[in-house]
Amino acid sequence: MTDTPVTPPAPKVRDSRFRRIWESDFMWSFRHAPVAIASFAVVLILILSAVFAPLIAPFDPFNPASLNLMNGFTPPGEANAFTGDTFILGTDDQGRDVFSTILYGMRISLFVGFAAVFLAMLIGVTLGLIAGYVGGWTETIIMRIADVQLTFPAILVAMLIFGIAKGITPPAYRDQMALWVLILAIGLSDWVQFARVVRGTTLVEKNKEYVQAARLIGRSPFIIMLKHILPNVLNPVLVIATISLALAIIAEATLSFLGVGAPPTKPSLGTLIRIGQEFMFSGEWWILLFPAGTLLALALSINLLGDWLRDALNPRLR
């Protein structure tokens, strides 16, 4: 009697990395959150519009050679009485296309926002790790500095830092360094939230078994903080960074609106709003409405996305 050959089972095809990500709990939560999807779509469209502004904008609003003062105060969608040109969102007092100024101004706002949040995150995470892991007088000094800074509104701290930094900058370089000074001011005014959260998480993580094991095998404190503790504190840091991005963009707009932010040669959304509010009661409503609406949509969408991210990364809510 001949034994019937047994066919070995076919090996299971491993799912692709994309499929594993798509079917993860994180993506499942995203797919079932309509507000998060809509917010992500709005943020993505606005960021891509700003990045590709030179390709999308019909005009370069900051090129004096392309401006025509006769196009000033042209209403949205209407032909100018003198030149016959039509602009989808109208023009401002200098004849600049409002749609183009929004795209270019949004580039400045997003650049300042991302750079300021990165600086605040770098400072806050570093100080939070050191305070939580080292402890003692180091922790006391860092946290007391953070407590003192929290007693002042962030916008006032940013204005103070901006004024000091601009004052020590040589006058010939002030316009060139204005954006970097603005980033420094907002970043130094927003590091406290990162430091407090990371310090609290580090206090919990440093007493766990994997950190104790790393100490026993002779790992240095720097390596332990960088390779063992830091990856476990990134979830709350990511949530804070998302929400702080919206706050940084609003802070930049506030400073620019007050005339202490982006230079006139590189106006951001806040500068455009300041220009528009001068003509709000004279009938040229579009100069203020469209930049303000863009800023509102951008900040609100990032905030809603941050709220969803906070819930999605919270293990207690799973």
UniProtKB/TrEMBL annotation:
GO BP: transmembrane transport
Subcellular locations according to the entry: Cell membrane
Membrane topology listed for this record: Multi-pass membrane protein
Signal peptide: none
Domain ABC transmembrane type-1, chain residue ranges per copy: 106-306
Family: Belongs to the binding-protein-dependent transport system permease family.
Protein name from the UniProt record: ABC transporter permease
Origin species: Roseovarius atlanticus
Lineage: Bacteria, Pseudomonadati, Pseudomonadota, Alphaproteobacteria, Rhodobacterales
